[in-house]
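Lab meeting prep.
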Amino acid sequence: MEMLKAVLFDMDGTLVDSEIFHKDCWNMLLMPMGFQITEEEFLEEYAGIIGPITARNIVQNYNLKIDPDQFLAEKEKIALSHIRKLPINLMHFVKESIQYFKSKNLKLAVVTGSPAVTAIPFLESVGISQNFETIVTRSDVSNSKPHPDSYQLAMERLRLSPQDCIAIEDTQNGVNSASTAGVTCLAVRDVPFGNHDLGKAEKEFKNLEELVSWVEVTYF
């Protein structure tokens, strides 16, 4: 077993319980058009998918007469204006897991498919942004998740190799991104996603608390 040097966290659904926030923002745009996405539908069809693809899929699924890029831009404006108005909570055991990993002198990073304009305020609003040595967002790479670019950039910034790191993800795109980058990926199913195949993950856990216990036994 290689010595563990860093933990690379996904953000949405792993650190921050933000999927329903995103659903609510999309629904604010859809309401005047007579459509609404249910929580179950959003978690099954759109969670873990980067904004440009989500926008395109919603436009197609509801046959909207709007450019997907414009639709996404409007959604991100709504998200930015509501980050401190709508409730956003940390996922279970996030603060404790951060404290644990820091006690082991591990470097911490965030690797997210969200754009910088919302990712940074999200992490600031829940009071954890200062814990990470680097935050890689969709804005930093040409190809976001499920491509490996985001994880490769995070490791480049940390000056580490894949064998030095573990990634923590909760969706198929995230797991595939980390795995393709050569990083051991641990999956957390804190929120059940309908058709997400997490088969490329090294191991799957029901929450971060269970994951941290496994890391302690496995690496330390």
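Slide two material, second protein:
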Amino acid sequence: MIKSQIEKNALKIWQFLDKSQISSVFEIEKRLLMQRQDVLLALGWLAREDKIYFLGDQKVSKIMVIKDIDGD
């Protein structure tokens, strides 16, 4: 997968999480009709950019958007 596709998937996931507030990897896969590998790569991108926060343990985690003070 090329970098531009990972970035596009990251944007889709960020927009989904911005609306849903919190979600699991499984929920993201099903709602956005994405392959697990694509979801995980995009989540890695978002995590590196400090855009998301992981809740829970290693087996079951939820993901939520990190919002800046100015709302971004």
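Talking points for slide two:
The chain has three helices and three strands.
Strands lie at 22-24, 52-56, 61-65.
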